[in-house]
Each structure stands twice: as C-alpha cells, then as structure tokens.
Amino acid sequence: MIKLIVTTTFYTQSDMNPLYKLLSSLKLTVVLLAFSMLLVFFGTLDQIHLGIHKAQTIYFESFFTVWPFREAGYSLTELGLPLPGGFLIGILLILNLSCSHFRYFRKSWKKTGIALIHTGVALLIASGFLTSFLQKETQMWIDEGAESNYTTDPKDAELVIIETTDPKKDIVTSIPHEQMTRGTTLTHENLPFSINVLEYFSNSASGKPTKEDPGLIANEGIGAKMQFKIFEAPMTYRHDTINTPSSLIHITADKKDLGKWIVSPFFNDRFSTQTFNFQDKTYTISLRPRRKYLPYSIKLVDFKHDVYPGTTIPKNYSSKVEITHHEKKEVRPALIYMNHPLRYEGLTFFQASFGKNNTASMFQVVKNEGWLIPYIAVALVGIGMIVQFMMHLIKFLKKSK
Fold it and tell me: Would you say 248 and 218 are in contact if contact means Cβ atoms under 8 Å apart?
C-alpha cells in the first residue's frame, strides 16, 4: 500500500524573496499612490502650457518624466523634479496588487468579494494602457443640410493631389506629412510627375513680408499672388490651438518645370483650389488635415444651441443627424447631445463644438477597441463590494440572533 504524503511549506518573513516581499508590501502601495497624486497635480499644472494631449503623453504615457518648475510657460531652472511616469506607476500597481493578493489571500468562498474587487481594480488599471495604445480621436465638421463621409485629424496632415479630368470620378493620391522632409523627392505610381520638397514647416504663421524676410516664395498658384508671407512658427500643443503646416514644393516632369507652389491649410478655406494641367489632365493640389473615409455618411438635419434664460451660459448643444449606409441600405435618425454620444460601427460621436453662427456642428469621433473594459472593471468592483458586504451582514445577523 502506497501512501501519498502532501506537505505544505510556509515561508516566514525572513525566508521570503526580498523582491516579492517588496512588491507585495503595503508601503509600496502607499508610495505609488502618492506618486500618482503628484503626477496628476504636476500634469494638470503643465496642461495649461502644453495642452491636454501633450501633457498626457509626457506625464501619463511615459515611464519617467521631469517637471521643469514651469512658471508662465517657461522653465525656471535647468533642473527639474524627476517623477515616475504613468506607465511605470501603472505596471508597478498591477504587480503590487497581484503579489499582495497571492501573499495574503487564502482560498475561501468567503473571500469571493475581495477576489472580484482585486480583479476589477487590475482591469481598470490595465484599461488605461489599452486606451493609450488603441484609442484614436478625429473630428467631423458638418454644416446644416450637408453630409459628410469622412473624419479629419487636426494633429495630422497629408499632401493631396487629385486628378479631376473625369467629371464622374476623382483619382486621389495622398502623401503623409511624415514623408515631406526638406530635400525629399516624392513620387507615386498615379502621378506622371515628381514633387520636390523645398521647405516644410510643421507649424506656420502668416504676416507681412519684408525684404529681409519675404517668407516662402512661389511662382505658381496662390503663393505667387498673395500679399502676405508664410513663415515657420513654434509647435503648439494646447487643446484650443492647432498646428498649421505649410510647404514649398517644386513640381517637375521629364525635365519640364511645372512651377514652385506653396501648399497650406491657410488656403483651403480662404481661396479657390490650386489647379494645373499636365498631359491633357487636370490636377488639384493641397495640404490638408488627414482624412479617414467611412463606409457611410452622416447628414446634419438640425443643430440647436440652447442657453439659460437671460444669460449666454450654454445649457445644451444638440445635433439631429441622419445616418445613411448604402451597403446595408440603412437610413437611421439619431440625436447627439451633451453626455449622450452616438455609437455606430465601432465609433463614438460626441457633441464637441459648433460654428458658423450655430449652423455647423463639430463631432469628436473616438475609436477605442477596449472601451468596454472599464465598464466591466467597475461592475466587478461593485459586485465584489456588494458580495463582501452581504457576507459580513449575514454573519452579523446570525450572531445577533
């Protein structure tokens, strides 16, 4: 007869691995939470100067960061306060939660609530990482009575050359702005000519030209006729401003000079489209925010901007829209207003802004594959707290009887 003997080894504090002991300690939890509060504090301060997106990248989407003692937008000293970034704090919090759970947790149905709470908190932290990698934000401007089937990214740009010879269709060639570095020659199979990038500014401004500084100089298109100059400007990251890229390009084909052109979003709303002819074909050229086309279109039926009586304080923004999906043969009405977005085919449309004397609406369009995880995490924490509370309540009632 063979007996199977199972032994269980209990480790004392002295026998425990020092790294495991550190990662599972309550002191580490307190330190990490303290650094989290500091990170939120300094990140919020710098948000005034850097904008939401830049501050989020520097402080919360990094492993290490430095707060440079900013005052009025300028660093007071060359030294700064080093801080752990959001990624590092998040990873350490997950490790700390996991290690402390397995160090102190004992398997029992009475601990079900605690297990659910820990799982929910871990998921909530992990969802922050997923959001930073998966979430993408774009915008959609629509005038009342008009419709749109694309979104734009104001932080990104593309050089677009469109062949408009055939009135029934356009052939669009898009070149990402990342390829438009000074001295680069751009070619594409759809284009019978090449584009030489003479200058490219990630952000630009306009002003009065001078003999000493005439700005970008072109001999074709709008740039050859305008009475103002375009010059390089510092990059901006504030949420209420956007960068306006500009470029001076030289178009050539078979040793034929098609001129030097200035392309910039400055021209898109103020002037007519820049066009030229080559080999009996007509082309338009522009530098614009990068577009992402959708398989459906959205029409703005009506926009309302309500304010509190006797004031100019906004009470509500609302957009009545109509979604037309030709492939699905679907026409769907919807109402988008504050704190009530539209979710359709993986995208979320938020009411974000308006313009043109309340006749145009702007939607913030968010794509986040992991949007459901925070809801699941919060639900697990809530269920875990209820379960744990009910177990203690039942135990207390039994004792009281």
Answer: yes
pTM for the model stands at 0.71
> Taking the chain, what is the end-to-end CA distance rounded to the nearest angstrom?
50
- The DSSP string of 78-129 is S--EEEE-HHHHHHHHHHHHHHHHHHH----GGGHHHHHHHHHHHHHHHHHH
* DSSP three-state, residue 146: coil
Q: How many residues does the chain have?
A: 401
User: Do residues 90 and 131 make contact, with C-beta atoms less than 8 angstroms apart?
Assistant: no
**Which tokens belong to 80?**
């700064």
Per-residue DSSP letters for 274-343?
Answer: EEEEETTEEEEEEEEEEEEEEEEEEEEEEEEEEE-TTS--EEEEEEEEEEEETTTTEEEEEEEETTB-EE
What's the rounded mean pLDDT across residues 118-142?
86
Asked if the model's pLDDT at residue 379 lies above 70, the reply is yes
